[in-house]
Amino acid sequence: MKLWVYVVRRLILLIPTLIGLTFIVFGLLHAGGTTEFIKDYLNPRLTGPARQAAISDLIIRFHLNEPLFVQYFYWIRAVLGGDLGYTAVQGGVPVSTALTWFLPNTLVLTVFASALTWILAIPIGVFSAVRRDSVIDQGVRVATFTLYSMPIFLIGYGLLVLFGVTWRVLPIEGMLNEQLYTDLPSSWFDHSFAVSSPTHILMFDAFIHGYWGVAWDAFLHVVAPTLTLTLALLAGIVRILRASMLEVLDQDYIRLARAKGAPERVVNNLHARRNALLPTVTTFGYLVASLLGGAVVVEDIFTFKGIGWWTTQALLMTDVGGIMGTTLIFGLVLVLANLAVDILYGLLDPRIRY
Q1: CA 138/CA 125 separation, integer angstroms
Q2: Average pLDDT value for residue range 112-138
Q3: pLDDT tens digits, residue range 248-299?
């Protein structure tokens, strides 16, 4: 089977999953009744006659006097149009607007942590497996087991104390040094909501507009949260890669390659590592998707304003609209991560396409 056919089949199989996800979110939005649903889609800044007019408009727009299955289709139409209601966080803005503000920051943490994990995990896992039961291997196993058993908030607080209190080499709070905020021009930085443009990622926007010092300081604020997510992800990946590498190294074709006189570096890197990566890639995809859940904790620890921080604020404010918007996005990211893993797995091992 060709790869594009395999990808199309996987896309078709995603449709029932996405429909099921929307059923769950829609059901939770209506769990509190019609009044709660209206509240989630009502602009909290409206008062008096304007508020009553908006309520009447929502009843007509979502057909709230009709059965739930009818309401579902009108709600789906609104969601596909980017309307997810309003959130009370940041003074009351559309959920879709809040997502465009905060999701990019979380994606930066996720991408940086994923890339750094992959760069570190492969050589560490392979090196540890090749030198099985050596002092280095034992050290790697102890370190990864320790990290693997630690909850992510403990890793975060440990780095916070280490970098921010003991060594004082990295900023450990916020997105930027408070003194630098006053120098940012309103042409690309909204001081009311502390949001930059056009990417909504402060270090990138500052770089684009030529504020090198601001860009560097914003980058330093990303380091500690990124390292926290990396350490939380790294331990599991290294342990899985090491175990997979040890299993592959015991295979007959590896012994045959060595018997033919192939250099050990070629045997390890060309023959063994590629096959050892197959289960690691699958696990890596699921763990990367779970980073969004870890980001909720990490961003709250470091006051890093990503979607995790926003979700925490929404929970504290009992902001159902914001919580359901986050649930929908998290579910979508998990589904897309699974798709990416399946495609990558098909590239690495063409046998699974059949």
Answers
A1: 12
A2: 92
A3: 988 888 888 888 888 888 888 777 887 888 778 777 777 766 777 778 889 9
